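Work through this protein:
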Amino acid sequence: MHSDIKNRNTLQRKLVLETVRNMTNHPDAEMVYDEVSKINPMVSKATVYRNLKLLAKQGHILHIPIPDGADCFDFNCSPHYHIKCRKCSRVFDVDMPYQENLYQNIKNYRGFVIETHQIVFSGLCPDCK
């Protein structure tokens, strides 16, 4: 029975991963759940949320914290920046080189060891301006 549970969890995780990879619109967890439930209505919302968190932790997808909005997920795990439309809330990639050494501009580290950073710009998308 233990192997049945593990196999089911692996299949559900694979379904969540494939769903995010097929969605190129930086979906939030609710959007991923909606798509997963169309394919397999037996997968619970909690399972989708748990697997998104795990897949991001394992580095298979990128978790994008969005200020004043629902966190998003991205199939593109390479370091890059995003922009959120303040009207429609859609998130887009920004065509800009990743600033690897941006941390060097920090005046006081306050004891932190800087490991990575994410920047989300805000503005109006072409459809909303």
